[in-house]
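Incident log, support desk, overnight shift.

02:14 A customer reports that sequence design results differ from what the structure should imply. Their input is reproduced verbatim below. On-call engineer (initials T.W.) acknowledged and began investigating.
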């Protein structure tokens, strides 16, 4: 089997694990009213170990050939802490496990942990490198391992091979990359000669980006605060219907409301990842949302943003330039050219309806699953920083809409939970804080 080569976005996440950019992991936090015992997660752990999450990266021997995935990464054992945590310490415990040391070159590339909650209940944390899976992939693999059916069509991770690539494979890949990039550049330049819009994009890329509202010093530090809240799904649906909007649009306006509190009122540049069939998608939709915006108006703006992204005019290389040009530059130059990929004021990542696959595990009823990205060790001195002020991930399961937030520290000392609960209340929605 021909090895699955890393994409441009994969390389960005790979560099983050090696000190050039922000290290990003995905985390699922699964709550239960009952106490799960470690033995009850043995099959779940074993099936995850046999899944595409258990892969690692191999660097090729030929210059300009792209890295590739192979299976057989080291697997970490289930981590169980017998001392129960406080009922209000679930998020703190999850934050700590988001700091798990992951190694994308040898493994482990994912980590599974279990703890009990004082007074009853359990929490399961599944963390993996964003390089080996995005949020939908993590959900799909967890669903398959639990025996559930979260999504009608399971997310397909790219295939991996058990053997290193042959020298001829690497040579062929390096040649393909050069040919692809050169022809792509020529094609973009020729299009620029006849298409005014493409020409404007190419020239626009040479000009400095327009100034955005300047965050305060407190919101540009590496310190981050997190929150998870959930809303009754029926109440959420009524609000979506009453405002003539969509679930994603409602999350986007809530994100703009919170950013407005963190930074001050004004336009909030927001990115929304576009779900692809497999692998890491490069193009995302970009939309400007004002604090206090109408959800219906935001929904219309998002539809236009999706259309732009689908036609190749979303967040990505200008004028149809090949993104793979970054892979020819090498890690150091590529990071210098794109030090903060996708960095905007807010990130909104809708995972959609997860179905009933996460309603229970090993016969124990679930209280809900929250999914988010996390940025391990971003508060350490010298660590790379993202300009994104707020990330919000939404997932519908167990009769609730679960919102996971990662935000810059508020200068006024307010928690993300307080900020989003206030924003929801202002729009007539009631949140339960995890």
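02:41 Re-run completed on a clean worker. Output:
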């Amino acid at each position: 089997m021909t090895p699955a080569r890393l994409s441009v976005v994969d390389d960005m996440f790979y560099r983050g694990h090696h000190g050039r950019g922000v290290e990003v992991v995905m985390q699922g936090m699964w709550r239960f009213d009952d106490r799960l015992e470690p033995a009850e997660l043995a099959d779940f752990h074993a099936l995850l170990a046999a899944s595409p999450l258990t892969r690692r990266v191999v660097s090729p021997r030929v210059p300009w050939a792209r890295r590739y995935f192979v299976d057989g990464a080291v697997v970490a054992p289930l981590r169980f802490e017998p001392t129960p945590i406080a009922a209000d310490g679930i998020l703190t415990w999850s934050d700590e496990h988001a700091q798990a040391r992951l190694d994308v070159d040898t493994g482990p590339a994912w980590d599974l942990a279990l703890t009990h909650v004082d007074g009853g209940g359990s929490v399961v944390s599944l963390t993996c490198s964003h390089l080996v899976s995005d949020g939908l992939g993590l959900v799909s693999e967890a669903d398959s391992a639990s025996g559930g059916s979260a999504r009608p069509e399971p997310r397909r991770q790219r295939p991996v091979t058990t053997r290193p690539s042959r020298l001829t494979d690497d040579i062929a890949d390096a040649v393909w990359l050069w040919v692809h990039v050169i022809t792509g550049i020529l094609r973009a330049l020729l299009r620029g000669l006849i298409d005014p819009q493409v020409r404007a994009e190419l020239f626009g890329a040479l000009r400095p980006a327009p100034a955005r509202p300047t965050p305060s010093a407190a919101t540009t530090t590496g310190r981050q605060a997190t929150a998870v809240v959930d809303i009754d799904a029926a109440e959420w649906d009524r609000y979506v219907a009453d405002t003539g909007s969509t679930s994603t649009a409602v999350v986007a306006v809530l994100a703009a409301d919170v950013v407005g509190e963190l930074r001050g009122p004004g336009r909030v540049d927001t990115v929304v990842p576009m779900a692809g069939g497999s692998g890491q998608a490069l193009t995302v939709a970009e939309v400007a949302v004002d604090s206090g915006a109408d959800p219906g108006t935001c929904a219309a703006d998002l539809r236009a943003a999706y259309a732009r992204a689908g036609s190749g005019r979303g967040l990505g290389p200008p004028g149809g330039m090949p993104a793979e040009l970054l892979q020819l530059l090498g890690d150091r130059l590529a990071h210098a050219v794109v030090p903060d990929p996708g960095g905007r004021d807010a990130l909104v990542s809708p995972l959609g309806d997860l179905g009933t696959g996460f309603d229970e595990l090993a016969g124990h009823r679930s209280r809900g699953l929250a999914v988010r990205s996390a940025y391990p060790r971003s508060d350490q001195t010298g660590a790379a920083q993202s300009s994104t002020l707020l990330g919000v991930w939404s997932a519908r399961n167990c009769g609730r809409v679960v919102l996971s937030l990662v935000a810059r520290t508020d200068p006024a000392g307010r928690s993300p939970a307080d900020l989003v609960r206030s924003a929801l209340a202002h729009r007539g929605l009631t949140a339960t804080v995890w």
